[in-house]
Amino acid sequence: MSGLDPEDFAPLRALAHRMLDDVFDRAEQMGDGPVWQPMPQQARDAFNLDLPEKGQDAEALYGQFLDQIRPYSNGNPHPGFMGWVQGAGTPIGILAELLSASLNDNCGGRDHAAIEVERQVIRWAAEMVGMPKEASGCLVTGSSLANFIGVITASRVVSPELRREGLSGRKLVGYAAETAHGCVSRAFDLAGLGSDALRLIPVDELHRMDDLALAQRIREDREAGYHPFIIIGTAGSVDCGAVDPLEALADIAQAEKCWFHVDGAFGAFARLSPEHAIMLDGIERADSLALDFHKWGQVPTTRAVC
């Protein structure tokens, strides 16, 4: 029985060199042509075929990539791309992805160098925003999952019995600005708390969470028999880049014995700016933080830390 490696690596090596040249030719000329173009039906039809009974050689598959995939990417590496909040990636990041794929390391356990790389990245991310170097964390697919992990962690810290008993009638509630990313509400849904358990707090004229309104809502919820467990601050809202008053939120969280989570997916990297770092004062007091590398960090594909 033959393995999956080619009997002769020479043709594959030649194709790989061609691919690499094509990749960097495109990177050098990224500003040429449209940012995005619609995918014609003919190209779409190529991905609606019956399951093939025989495989194709790598060169033929690469031809399909060049004709039917590459021209119709979403365009975020283009210098004229102004949509959403995705970073463009970097040429050196392309090579990093290549090296990572060549190792094919699984970082879910065991003892190998890639785990130490992850640990270092997490330590540096914590140090960057002023958190202790000893802070723990994990790399996940994006800030939606990172914020979900933050909500789950907070609920288990505040009510450890949830692991065994579930909610069992406990009326846990949390708080975020009405401009918070939609993934926060979905996190409450997926965590079994219900999206109604997330109290959306009004914002001020600068689109920041109104901390006085927050404190008032917490008081009202306690009087009504609810159990406040988490306050979620936003460091860079997706709509306009607003930063909630993190110091004030941290004070309230401490006084109310709530977990303080910060969604810094969009703006946490501003902590590296001598001019704008002051806007994020208080982020270092967070109990947990969601931080994206693929936005201001320009890391290819989606990576986030929680």
Description:
By secondary structure, this protein is of the alpha/beta class. The chain folds into 2 domains: 9-83; 113-305, Type I PLP-dependent aspartate aminotransferase-like (Major domain) (Aspartate Aminotransferase, domain 2), CATH 3.40.640.10. Helix content is 39%, strand content 10%. The chain has 10 helices and 7 strands. It has helices at 9-28, 41-45, 58-68, 91-103, 113-129, 143-158, 162-165, 182-190, 211-223, 246-256, and strands at 139-140, 172-177, 198-201, 227-234, 259-263, 288-292, 304-305. A 7-stranded mixed beta sheet has the order 1-7-6-5-4-2-3, sandwiched between helices. β2 (172-177), α8 (182-190) and β3 form a beta-alpha-beta unit. α6 packs across α8 (182-190). The longest helix has 20 residues, at 9-28. The two termini are 44 Å apart.
Keywords:
306 residues; alpha/beta; 2 domains; 7-stranded mixed sheet; 7 strands
Write the layout of secondary structure elements.
Layout: H1 9-28, H2 41-45, H3 58-68, H4 91-103, H5 113-129, E1 139-140, H6 143-158, H7 162-165, E2 172-177, H8 182-190, E3 198-201, H9 211-223, E4 227-234, H10 246-256, E5 259-263, E6 288-292, E7 304-305
Parallel strand pairs: 2-3, 2-4, 4-5, 5-6
Antiparallel strand pairs: 1-7, 6-7
